[in-house]
UniProtKB/TrEMBL annotation:
Alphabetical UniProt keywords: ATP-binding, Nucleotide-binding, Transport
Matching InterPro entries: AAA+_ATPase, ABC_transporter-like_ATP-bd, ABC_transporter-like_CS, P-loop_NTPase
Pfam family, one: ABC_tran
Residues of the ABC transporter domain: 2-238
Transmembrane segments: none
UniProt xrefs under SMART domains: AAA
Residue runs in coiled coils: none
Region (Disordered): 252-277
UniProt key word Cytoplasm: no
The protein, known as: Phospholipid/cholesterol/gamma-HCH transport system ATP-binding protein
């Protein structure tokens, strides 16, 4: 679990994060969503320590990450896996060598053990047959899967993914989402995803933090979204007429069948997720 307590960050006289508190839960896919410039990337960079917060506290499983020196942070950092936007693979290395890279940098154990671990991870993301290929020889979706294999090779406790679906078609995106979700559950990882992808939001959003102008505007699950009355969230998620109609139809269906009680833990219809703090 990662806890953010009232974090603030500015650049010059521009305030970007204006006191954000949120919890990224273990064994869940936690999504950070919001329009361009709302502060999602800055928040994620603060969480991994690439940017220092001006105020507030970030805790990893109760340990105050913000108050640690570099040596203490190293221990936490070794438990973090990262999937970068565009996969960020080394073009001159094979798929296998790319996945081996974190093990060579931080891993212990023999070369044989490392090879075995790489093979396990490639098998897990269904890329066993691509081990000897170079990034230029594989598709965008395969590159993402190599990125995922590399991100999990050190058995991370926390996984950060920056726009994991960028540049992918909707079906491949869903496969990537499913894979990330499966791994999150399988290894009880605290996964944090920065995304614009509405399919991801609706399919994988166990826990969603919606950012608006540097503040947490809304928090809830993908199920809560259908019942939310938050105007800013609705304008963001259901941006088109088509999606607004789809939402209304879904709401009507869930209310009339009484299924809204199963879909959301809220006390009353129309009150989904409105817990801005
Ligand atoms: N190093 C920096 N120096 C100055 N301003 C910055 C810096 N990093 C980010 N910003 C500013 O912070 C604001 C929020 O940026 P951020 O990248 O977090 O947005 P975002 O929500 O991730 O947007 P997008 O969805 O487009 O990636 C922007 O106005 C950006 O220009």
């Amino acid at each position: 679990m990662i806890e953010l307590q009232d974090i603030k960050k500015g650049f010059g006289d521009k305030e970007i994060l204006k006191g954000v508190s949120a919890v990224m839960e273990s064994g869940k896919v936690n999504l950070i969503i919001g329009s361009s410039g709302s502060g999602k990337t800055v928040m994620m960079k603060c969480m991994v320590g690439l940017i220092e917060v001006d105020a507030g506290i970030i805790k990893y499983d109760g340990q105050n990450f913000s108050g640690m020196d570099n040596q203490q942070r190293k221990e936490i950092r070794q438990k973090i896996g990262m999937l970068f936007q565009g996969s960020a693979l080394f073009d001159s290395m094979t798929v296998e060598q790319n996945v081996m890279f974190p093990l060579d940098m931080f891993g212990t154990g023999s070369y044989r053990d490392k090879k075995k671990r790489v093979a396990e991870c490639l098998e897990r993301v269904n890329l066993k047959d691509a081990a000897k290929k170079f990034p230029a020889e594989i598709s965008g979706g395969m590159k993402k899967r190599v990125g995922i294999a590399r991100a999990i090779v050190l058995n991370p406790k926390y996984l950060f993914c920056d726009e994991p679906n960028s540049g992918l078609d909707p079906q491949t995106s869903l496969l990537i989402d499913q894979l990330i979700k499966e791994l999150t559950l399988e290894y009880n990882i605290t996964t944090v995803i920065n995304t614009h992808d509405m399919n991801t939001v609706m399919e994988s959003g166990d826990h969603i933090v919606y950012m608006y102008q540097g503040q947490k505007q809304w928090e809830g699950t993908n199920k809560d979204i259908v019942f939310s009355n938050d105007q800013l969230l609705n304008d963001f998620i259901f941006a088109s007429e088509f999606l607004r109609e789809a939402k209304e139809m879904r709401q009507t269906e869930l209310y009339s069948s009484g299924k809204w009680k199963e879909e959301t833990k809220r006390e009353a219809p129309g009150n989904g997720g409105e817990q801005k703090k």
